[in-house]
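Consider the tokenized backbone below.
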């Protein structure tokens, strides 16, 4: 599928934003961040800004953005509609937690809003992932690894942003425990994505032209002529092809940016504490670039079954 920049920006930014909000909600709700209202407010604003930027970026992929509001009416059957409803509902605990911190509300009310932020953010992430893993015509998406991949990358990128924010803006003390937790999150996200890539390589799914015509497997089937004489929407959006060798290289680069480079930066920060701020910036930037690259691969390596009907010599292929 054609990897549109708007959808890549949407899934990357909103994933990182919701991941950050999940960790913030857990930390505040369990009394780990209540002593620094400025950090809570800054992280809350950053998470909300990333989510809002992602949602606005998604509108750029619509043919008629002014009609986007109609999608909310289909929540009974559409995961896209449910995602929109969940995203809007998620701003209630965001605003509630911000008000509780600014107004100096009691710990019980503040913690209640913080803990409500966790399921609200997770629900939106689940809805986003379900948009893709329920699409049976795209085998690379219709599998059990898509949802864990979305959740793992959100947790890793959100955790990296929250840790970097604490180091850069609030000079958190150089404890190694937070870095170890972050490395575990990054390693887990890398493991889930590696499992996803192995799955789509081993189970490409779909049918070949012979099976589509109910012929014996391996039968030579060749189109007499192309279905049409010039490229159309299906070929532009669904027929994007990425060479296997390029895909393998980009996967390796993604893992380097997601795990190897952050691990080296954290090791330098532990050895020389004065390097902690630049290391934090490097970790956050590297993880975000890795997530954007993974999103690009997620779309570029997804092939719609409709392409079975187009011979390799067809237009635009």
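A designed sequence for it:
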């Amino acid at each position: 599928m054609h990897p549109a920049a708007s959808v890549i920006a949407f899934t990357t930014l909103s994933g990182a934003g919701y991941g950050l909000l999940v960790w913030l909600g857990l930390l505040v709700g369990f009394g780990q961040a209540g002593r620094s209202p400025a950090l809570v407010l800054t992280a809350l604003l950053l998470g909300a800004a990333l989510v809002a930027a992602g949602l606005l970026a998604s509108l750029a992929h619509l043919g008629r953005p002014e009609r986007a509001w109609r999608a909310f009416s289909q929540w009974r059957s559409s995961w896209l509609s449910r995602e929109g409803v969940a995203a809007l509902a998620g701003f209630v605990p965001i605003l509630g937690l911000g008000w509780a911190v600014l107004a100096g509300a009691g710990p019980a009310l503040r913690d209640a809003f913080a803990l409500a932020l966790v399921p609200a953010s997770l629900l939106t992430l689940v809805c986003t992932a379900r948009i893709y893993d329920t699409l049976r015509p795209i085998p690379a998406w219709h599998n059990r690894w898509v949802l864990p991949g979305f959740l793992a990358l959100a947790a890793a990128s959100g955790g990296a942003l929250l840790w970097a924010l604490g180091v850069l803006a609030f000079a958190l003390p150089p404890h190694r425990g937070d870095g170890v937790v972050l490395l575990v999150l990054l390693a887990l996200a890398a493991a889930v994505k590696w499992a996803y890539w192995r799955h789509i390589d081993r189970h490409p799914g779909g049918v070949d032209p012979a099976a589509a015509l109910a012929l014996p497997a391996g039968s030579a089937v060749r189109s007499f002529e192309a279905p049409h004489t010039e490229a159309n929407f299906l070929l532009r959006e669904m027929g994007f092809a990425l060479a296997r060798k390029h895909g393998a290289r980009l996967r390796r680069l993604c893992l380097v940016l997601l795990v190897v480079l952050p691990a080296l930066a954290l090791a330098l920060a532990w050895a020389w504490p004065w390097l902690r701020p630049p290391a934090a910036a490097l970790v956050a930037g590297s993880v975000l670039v890795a997530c954007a690259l993974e999103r690009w691969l997620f779309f570029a390596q997804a092939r719609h079954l409709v392409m079975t009907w187009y011979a390799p010599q067809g237009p635009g292929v």
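Residues 5-63+71-216+224-309 form a domain with the Formate dehydrogenase/DMSO reductase fold fold (CATH 1.20.1630.10).
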